[in-house]
Amino acid sequence: MIVLDKSIITEEMIDAAQNALANEFPLFGESVFKFEEEFAYFCGSKFAVGVGSGTDALIFSLMASDVEGKEVVTSPASYIATANAAIHSKATPVFCDIDQTNNIDHSLVEKKIGDSKKIKAIVPVHLHGYPAPMNELLEIVEGRDIFLVEDAAQAHGAIYFGKRTGALGHIGCFSFNPYKNISVGGEGGMITTNDEEIAEKIRMIADAGRENRFTHEHKIIGFSSRLSTVSAAVGRVQLRYLQEWNEKRRTAASIYRKLLADVEEIVLPPDKTEIHSAYNKFAIKTNVRDALKQHLNNNDIESDPHYPIPIHMQPPYQKMGYKRGNFPNAENFAATTLSLPMFVDITKEEIGEVCEVIRNFFEM
Ligand SMILES: Cc1ncc(COP(=O)(O)O)c(C=O)c1O
């Protein structure tokens, strides 16, 4: 069986976890602050705040951006948490369709914003690890009171025109669940920003609305969603390997590209010189997606679409009045996308086998 993905836990990570459990306080331990500092430095941002999940990173970032009663523009081609975050922060999600890179179409965002005074934030998603069109989006928000909040849940260490994700917009949101490029051995999240006020606000929201853990005064209605010390200790070790791991993912992606280049029925993931995906997923597009997935499965190869139902077609969003046909590109993407096995130590032979099975399917 060739699996779809694998998260890495090594002896070094287990030692770090044991050490943190034995010697540090379970919350707000030294490992948390060190991980935050190192993660911020890695991304190229000034501040980072650890939280309980990627979803909470998005919710708290939008709350700190004062979106309540306003609109949040985002992509329907994402994990549902992206749009849910707008709802949890008492805003209305507003979708813009995607372009051929599978990320939000900046020209549609520009049209949508027009003279609107209601839009308070844009949440582009770096889907599968491939950065959204941040240069164009930054131009759109220039001079406007609109926050650009990156959903970088799948894009730790992706590079966009020389800069890392998380430092491209006003706030970056990361997930550390077991399917991500860093998984901290469980789950967690991180926000990055250059804005100290935003960082402190998010810290407060994540810790029951108090300014620090030594006070009994709770200034705002907050949540209880901190990154645990043991998770941070594991995350610190993983962060040291992230660059090397991402390079391995990129090498795997280039082997896939070479072996599938002449399969006409397949569209390969986007690729541009100035953009280096973190390849959380290696996702192809094909009109015979379900049959190909079945064929791979028959040959002991896992594959899965991320995501087969666009957010506006999910039941709660259907109840809000969204319909099939609202976002045709996202709907077409959902019907054709298929993620192939992609993990750090996938071998050349395994990729060769996956591609051989795909080529057989297309009778090549
Ligand atoms: C694009 C995207 N946004 C947000 C999230 C939410 O992250 P978490 O599962 O850590 O809450 C995920 C995780 O699957 C994701 O892939």
Descriptive report:
This protein is α/β, with parallel strands linked by helices. The chain has 2 domains: 11-237, 3-Layer(aba) Sandwich (Aspartate Aminotransferase, domain 2); 243-361, Aspartate Aminotransferase, domain 1 (Alpha-Beta Complex), CATH 3.90.1150. It is built from 12 helices and 12 strands. It has helices at 11-23, 30-43, 54-64, 81-88, 106-113, 134-141, 196-206, 229-260, 289-298, 315-319, 328-336, 348-361; strands at residues 47-51, 71-74, 92-95, 119-123, 147-151, 159-160, 163-164, 171-175, 189-193, 275-276, 282-285, 337-340. The strands form 3 sheets. Strands 1-9-8-5-4-2-3 form a 7-stranded mixed beta sheet, with helices on both faces. Helix 4 (81-88) links the parallel strand 2 (71-74) and strand 3 (92-95). The longest helix is centred in the last third of the chain and has 32 residues, at 229-260. The chain is globular. The model has no long low-confidence stretch (mean pLDDT 97). The protein binds pyridoxal-5'-phosphate (PLP).
**Overall average residue pLDDT:** 97
| CATH C-level of the largest domain | Alpha Beta
Spell the H/E element sequence.
HHEHEHEHEHEEEEEHHEEHHHEH
Shape: globular
Query: Which hetero ligands occur in this complex?
Result: pyridoxal-5'-phosphate
- Strand order of the biggest β-sheet: 1-9-8-5-4-2-3
- The share of residues in extended strands comes to 5-15%
Helix residue percentage: 25-40%
Number of helices: 12
DSSP, total strands: 12
Rg (CA only)? 20 Å
